[in-house]
Design brief:
3 helices, 62% helix, single chain
Length: 80
C-alpha cells in the first residue's frame, strides 16, 4: 500500500496517517484470510472503494466479482 498524500505535515499527523494505513491493510488481510479469497489485497481494496455505501455482504461482493471476472475472461465468439 502506498501513502500518496498526507492529511497533515506535523509529526502527529504523519504518525496517525501511517497507523491508519497499517490498520486498514491488516483488516483487509484478515478479511482475505477469513473468506479464503483468491483476490489480492489491492483488488479487495478496489472493490471496497467502489462499493463503500453498498450493503452487500463481503463474501457475496467478492464472490460476485470473481464470477464477473470469469465471464469477462471467456473467449469472444465473434472475434477472428
Amino acid at each position: 500500500m502506498t501513502l500518496k498524500t498526507l492529511w497533515g505535515h506535523s509529526e502527529n499527523a504523519v504518525n496517525i496517517h501511517i497507523w491508519v494505513a497499517i490498520c486498514t491493510y491488516l483488516i483487509i488481510a484478515k478479511v482475505k484470510h477469513a473468506l479464503r479469497s483468491e483476490l489480492s489485497i489491492y483488488e479487495i481494496l478496489q472493490i471496497l472503494s467502489i462499493s463503500v455505501f453498498d450493503k452487500t455482504n463481503l463474501q457475496e461482493l467478492l464472490t460476485e466479482y470473481n464470477t464477473n471476472q470469469n465471464i469477462k475472461e471467456q473467449r469472444n465468439l465473434f472475434s477472428d
